[in-house]
Structure formats: structure tokens, C-alpha cells
Amino acid sequence: MDKKFKVFGVGLQKSGTSTLRECLGLLGYDIARLHKRVFFDARAGRMEAVLPHLDAHEAFTGLAPPYLYEVGLERYGKAMRAVLTTRRSPEKWLNSLISHFERRSVFGNKLNLDVYGYLYPVGREEEFIAYYEAHNQRVRDFFARQGASDQFLEICWETGDGWKELCDFLEEPVMEGGVPHSNRTADLGNKPIRIAANRMLMKGYAALVR
């Protein structure tokens, strides 16, 4: 471990976290993608299962880190850094999320119930947007309350934030060029059968919940 900070990507999925992961990788961070297993362990309070992952790496993205920033600050103190990736608008985030779910395995979408409380965003648009906005505000408020605003960065790739903002925050030399935009919807490919199946399920789900 040669980096001075532990960096937590605390933005929700489809907010720019994949781009953040690529940027951190280019900066030389040892990154762990913490997904389902760590998410469920954290939610259940099984910190003995979570902390070894945090101690072993320098940066964290994925499903779990947005719910581990309090633990991270308590454990690592001044060495902890949180990066909240956001979209240009909540609607942009929602549309990106829907496109992502259309291309994901039908069974994979069951995880949405555990994360968001609903199976699909379609028919629950207001609830998903409220979740996104509430999460972002909770993170902002937490670091403000802790007097740790200097350990928190909110960044939006779509509005022009890039290497300078990230590198200055992490006390790294500013990288040249543009940031690598990763995991765009177009990169997921066209999967007509899966998309059609998910759209049919979303349509039926929307009819049930409206």
C-alpha cells in the first residue's frame, strides 16, 4: 500500500462510478469492487466480514461502498476520502438506470428489491428519484456534520468535472487528457431478446404498481 488515502466511491450505480474506478486505476490505486456479498454483510451489520476487504485495498467502488462511508471515516479518520459521483440531473440518472436494467439478466434485477425497495423503476419513478436525491443529501450532510467536508468531493463528469478536481482532491499530479468514460449504455451492447423480456416485465410491473 503506497497511497496515503482510502478512497470510497459513494455514488449510486449509473452515477459515474465506473469512470471513477478507471480514473483511480490510472492513478495507481489498488481497487476493490465490493458488490452483493459485501452489501448484504454491511446491511446486516457483519463488520467482521466487511473490514478485511477495506483493510486490504486502497479504493472501493461497486454496490456496497455507498453504504460504508460512515464506517470508512470512523476506521480511517483523516486518511479516508469519499467521492460522490452524480449525474447532470436525477432524470438523467433514472433514464440511465432503466437502460441498464433493460440489458441486465432478469434474475439479476431481483437485487433491486434489496437496494431500492422496488423491482423496477418503471412505475416507481418518483420513488427511485427520491432515493437518489436522499442518498446524495445524506452523504453531503454526514461529512458536513462531522466537520470533514475537506474529505468529501462531489463530482459530475457530465458538467465538465475531470482530472483536475479528482487529482487535486487526492493530492495527485493532474493527469493529462480527458477522463475515460466507462460503462456507457452503448458499451453494454444491443441484446434484443433480453431487452424485450425486461421491457415486458417492466410494463407488467408498472401496471401493477400504478
Automatic annotation (TrEMBL):
Membrane-traversing stretches: none
Pfam family, any one: Sulfotransfer_4
Protein name: Sulfotransferase family protein
